[in-house]
Design brief:
eight-stranded antiparallel sheet, 11 helices, alpha+beta, single chain, 11 strands, 3 domains, 347 residues, three-stranded antiparallel sheet
C-alpha cells in the first residue's frame, strides 16, 4: 500500500551539540532519526550534563569588563595585598619604605570597599580579563577571597615589615659590636649615650612605634629581648677592649690649647670628660701648596667615660692657631674634633 502524499512536512531540529538535523514527514510517516548518530552514541547522563552546562554557562562579558576596571584602578594595591597574604618578608631591611607602604594601605582599606562588594555580589564571576606576568594573581577567583579579609592580610604585612625594620636596627648594633671586637674602637655617641638596655630599647622602639601603634600592639618582646642580649655583649666587648688598651703618655702642658680642646668637646650634652692632654710638645707648622704658612697645630686627646660600662675611650683632637703674618699667630684656637676613640681603662 502506498503512503498518502497529501502533505510533505519538513521539520528541522537543533540538538544540544549545535548540529542541525532535518526530518521529512510524508503524511503520517517520518523519514530521518530524531537525533544525530553522534548524539545517539553518547550516554544519557553525559547528554544531560552537557545540556545543563550549556544552559547554566554565564554571560561573562559584563564580569570581564567590570574586573578590567578593578585591574586598572586597584591593580597595584591588589598585588601588594596578595604579597601580604602569601609571602614572608626576606629578613632585616635597612629602611622602612615597605612598612610605610603597608601602613598607608591599612589606612586606605576603604578604597577596596567597592571591590569587596562586587565580589560578594558575584559581579566578577566568570570574568576572563586575562593577566600579565607581573600581575599573575589578578584574577577575581584569586583576589576576591583575599579582599574579603583585606584588613587581616594587610595587618600581617605591616607587622612583618615592621619586625624586619626593627631587626635591621639590631643589625646596626651588631655592626658596632663587631667594630669594637675587631678594632677596639668605640663611637663617641655610644660612649656619651651609654650602653644600657633601657636606652637601647627606647632607641629601637623609636623607629617602629608608629607601625605598632597602628596595629594596636606593643613592640614585640621577642625583639626587645634581643636588644637586651646585644647590650650585654657590647658592654662585655667594651670592657674587654679597655682592659688591654694602652694609655697615651702626655707631652708638656699647654693650658690654653688644652682648655680649647675641652671646651669644644664639652659642648656635647651629657659627655663625661675625665682628662685632656697634648700629644705634641711643640707646634707643627702647616704650609699651603706654594710654601706659605697657613697655621700651626698640636695633636691632643680627650679621655671620655663610657656611660654604663667600666671603661673610657681616648678620643683624638687637634688644636690650631691661624698664621697672622710676621711670625705671629692668632690668639684664638680652632679645634678639629673626632667621632670615635680607642677603649682604655679610666684609671
Amino acid at each position: 500500500m502506498q503512503p498518502s502524499l497529501s502533505y510533505v512536512l519538513v521539520v528541522f531540529s537543533v540538538v544540544a551539540s549545535g548540529v542541525a538535523h532535518a526530518q521529512i514527514q510524508f503524511g503520517g510517516f517520518r523519514v530521518g532519526g530524531s537525533k544525530p548518530a553522534a548524539q545517539q552514541q553518547k550516554p544519557a547522563a553525559q547528554q544531560q550534563k552537557e545540556a545543563a552546562q550549556e544552559t547554566e554557562q554565564p554571560n561573562n562579558r559584563a564580569a570581564t569588563d567590570a574586573w578590567r576596571v578593578v585591574q586598572r584602578e586597584q591593580g597595584d594595591r591588589l598585588v601588594r595585598l596578595y604579597e601580604y597574604a602569601t609571602q614572608k618578608t626576606p629578613g632585616p631591611t635597612g629602611n622602612d619604605q615597605y612598612a610605610r607602604r603597608a601602613l598607608d594601605d591599612l589606612k586606605e582599606l576603604a578604597k577596596l570597599d567597592d571591590v569587596k562588594k562586587g565580589c560578594a555580589e558575584g559581579r566578577f564571576k566568570g570574568e576572563d580579563a586575562g593577566v600579565t606576568r607581573d600581575g599573575a594573581c589578578l584574577t577575581a577567583a584569586i583576589m576576591c577571597p583575599l579582599v574579603a579579609k583585606a584588613e587581616e592580610h594587610t595587618k600581617k604585612g605591616l607587622r612583618e615589615w615592621a619586625n624586619a625594620y626593627a631587626e635591621s636596627r639590631l643589625s646596626s648594633g651588631k655592626e658596632t659590636l663587631a667594630t669594637i671586637e675587631k678594632e677596639k674602637r668605640i663611637f663617641l655617641t655610644d660612649a656619651i649615650e651609654g650602653i644600657d638596655s633601657a636606652g637601647r630599647r627606647k632607641y629601637v622602639t623609636s623607629f617602629v612605634k608608629d607601625y605598632y601603634d597602628a596595629l594596636g600592639e606593643p613592640v614585640p618582646e621577642t625583639i626587645l629581648v634581643k636588644v637586651d642580649a646585644l647590650v650585654a655583649e657590647t658592654k662585655k666587648a667594651i670592657e674587654a677592649a679597655a682592659a688591654v688598651g694602652k694609655m697615651e703618655k702626655p707631652a708638656s702642658k699647654d693650658a690654653g690649647a688644652e682648655r680649647a680642646i675641652k671646651e669644644a668637646y664639652a659642648s656635647r650634652k651629657d659627655i663625661q670628660i675625665k682628662r685632656v692632654w697634648l700629644v705634641d710638645a711643640s707646634w707643627k707648622i702647616k704650609k699651603n701648596d706654594i710654601g706659605l704658612i697657613t697655621n700651626r697645630y698640636k695633636d691632643g686627646s680627650v679621655l671620655v667615660k663610657v656611660k654604663g660600662a667600666n671603661a673610657c675611650i681616648i678620643v683624638p683632637a687637634a688644636v690650631g692657631q691661624s698664621y697672622a703674618g710676621g711670625g705671629r699667630y692668632a690668639a684664638g684656637y680652632s679645634v678639629d674634633e673626632y667621632t670615635s676613640g680607642t677603649a682604655v681603662s679610666c684609671k
